[in-house]
Amino acid sequence: MTNTGHFQDIKQTARQRLQYIEVMAYYTGVVSRSDLTRTFGISDAAATKTLKQYNDLVPENLAYQHSDFGFIPTANFQAIFADLSPQTVLPMIAANLATAAPTTGESPVYGIPVDTLPQPIRLPDKSIVASIIRAIKHQQKVEIIYNSMTSSENTEPRFIEPHSLVNSGLRWHVRAYNEKNYDFRDFVLSRISRATLMSADAESSAMYDDNWVETAQLQLAPHPALSKLQQQGLLLDYGAKDDMIELSVRRALAGYVLQKLSVDTTADHSLNPNAYPLILLNREEVESFAGWSFL
Length: 295
Known about the structure:
- The structure is a single chain.
- The chain has 3 domains: 10-81, Orthogonal Bundle (Arc Repressor Mutant, subunit A), CATH 1.10.10; 126-210, SH3 type barrels, CATH 2.30.30; 214-293, no CATH class.
- Helix content is 31%, strand content 23%.
- It is built from 9 helices and 11 strands.
- The chain has helices spanning 12-28, 33-40, 44-57, 86-95, 126-138, 210-213, 228-237, 254-260, 283-290, and strands at 62-65, 70-73, 140-146, 157-167, 172-178, 183-188, 192-201, 215-222, 245-250, 263-264, 278-280.
- Strand 4 (157-167) and strand 5 form a beta hairpin.
């Protein structure tokens, strides 16, 4: 039975560590003393004390597994301290934050008000995201049902070997080896309706994904249809040198960068410059690996 009597008395520092335990255990499948020592810079004794505190408070959530030298979530696991929704956890992973600890009160911590643009939540259930993350962490295969925009075989299972998550700014993808087509490609997380972690080890890894390992230079410039004043403003905005904006990016991610920056990728720069203020100077070079994003 969960002991909830003293949850409100837990100090913020301790609460952050307990939140981390739940996120780590659920999403990666295991949390160990070494995880806590590395993440929070605490001693082995302090990490052991934190794990004991968690197990005393929520004794039915974790079970020790000798083969992993850590604790794994039980079938009855229920988060008590952490928000395990993908919309909370994935930005934490992207920013390399141990927790998304709530602040006290309504006032901004730094005294600076900040607002963000609302976006639809384009993520599947946390169990699907957890299966993908565990596969990446432990280098295993995953069986998924993927609702593709181009394929009619959406009910057929696919076997993938994921190696990385990608945040395009608008949605999350998983980069994975696709056994059906014998290639590496991106899968939109929100289009995965089922994900089952398999016991089989992945046979591929990021090192074999050429478009992931190799980088490219995107050479951008203000749209020629803009006025000189507008072009100068853009160059200043992007910190350009020699009238050109140059970005180094993984080849696999180049298309997403072009989309996010609203780059006119047409050969004759025919798009509205107010909506597409930048053009791609090295179009022929980039087309071979990012042609899918060209307009």
